[in-house]
Amino acid sequence: MTPCFSSIRESGFFAIKILTAHATKMQSSVADELGILRCITEQAKATNHPGCGHVLVLRESFELDSIHGRHLCLVHPASGILSILFDDDKKLPVQIVRHVTRQLLEALDFLHSQCRVIHTGKTL
């Protein structure tokens, strides 16, 4: 395991994203969120890029059936909560904004240069 991937902290808590049945169906034809996350996770394991510790990695995935159809479930290590960093005026202190901005730019550079992924912010 590379130092970068081992630095991705896993506290034992996980987040599960459950896609709608429609979004699950669209995974093969329009979007491939699972495939992209697998690529990002593999690249994070294989690099020391400073941004790889600031991206969402896939812990595992599975599917569930419901009355609405099949749902893809994506399991990620739980991320930190920014809300505890806000000051009394509901604003983030400037030093926190600088730190988070640096992490965001490092993460985007990792996605672009190592994973060859462009984050568009579009949703299905």
Task: Give a brief rundown of this model.
The protein has 124 residues and is of the alpha+beta class. It has four helices and three strands.
Question: How do the SSEs run, as a string of H and E?
Answer: HEHHEEH
The helix count comes to 4
- Low-confidence residue ranges: 5-9
Largest sheet: 3 strands, antiparallel
Structural class: alpha+beta
- Gross morphology: globular
End-to-end distance, in Å?
34 Å
Number of domains: 1
Report strand order across the widest sheet. 1-3-2
Q: In angstroms, what is the radius of gyration?
A: 16 Å
Strand content: 15-25%
Describe this structure in words.
The protein has 124 residues and is of the alpha+beta class. It has one domain (3-113). It is built from 4 helices and 3 strands; from the N terminus they run H-E-H-H-E-E-H. The chain has a 3-stranded antiparallel sheet. The longest helix is centred in the C-terminal third of the chain and has 20 residues, at 94-113.
